[in-house]
Specification:
Order of helices and strands: HEEHH
Number of helices: 3
Helix content: 25-40%
Strand order of the largest sheet: 1-2
Strand content: 5-15%
Number of strands: 2
Radius of gyration: 16 Å
Length: about 120
C-alpha cells in the first residue's frame, strides 16, 4: 500500500482503491474498489496491520486465466511478475503443503473463510 502524501489522510475509499489496484496488478482481476468489501483486519507478528478485502467469487478457471494473462503481460514488458505462482486452497490443512514463506496471518484468514463456508 502506498502511504498518503504529507498532510493527506487515508480514507477507507483510498484503501479499497489500493486493494483493487493490487488485485489487478498481482492477479489480473479487474474490479472496481466499490466491488470490494473490507473483510478482516489483522496484525502481524512484526506489528504490521493487514487489511483483507473480499472480492466477488469467481470460478477457479477464471482466476487462473487472469493470473496467467497478468504474468504474461509482465514478462512481455521485460519484468518478472511479483508473484511466481498462485495457490488456491480450500482448507487451512492445505497450507502446510505449500512451499515458501507464508504471512503469519494467512492461516487465521483461511480458517475464517472456510468456517463461513460451512455455516
Amino acid at each position: 500500500m502506498e502511504p498518503p502524501r504529507a498532510g493527506e489522510g487515508l480514507t477507507e475509499a483510498d484503501l479499497a482503491g489500493q486493494a483493487a489496484r493490487e488485485l489487478f496488478e498481482e492477479l489480473g482481476l479487474d474490479g472496481g474498489a466499490e466491488e470490494l468489501r473490507l473483510w478482516a483486519v489483522t496484525r502481524g507478528e512484526n506489528g504490521s496491520v493487514g487489511l483483507t478485502y473480499r472480492a466477488a467469487v469467481l470460478p477457479e478457471a477464471a482466476v487462473r486465466d487472469a493470473f496467467a494473462a497478468a504474468a504474461a503481460a509482465e514478462r512481455a514488458q521485460g519484468r518478472e511478475p511479483e508473484l511466481d505462482d498462485i495457490a488456491l486452497v480450500s482448507s487451512p490443512r492445505e497450507l502446510e503443503f505449500l512451499s515458501g514463506p507464508h504471512a503469519d496471518y494467512l492461516e487465521p484468514l483461511v480458517r475464517r473463510f472456510t468456517d463461513q463456508l460451512e455455516d
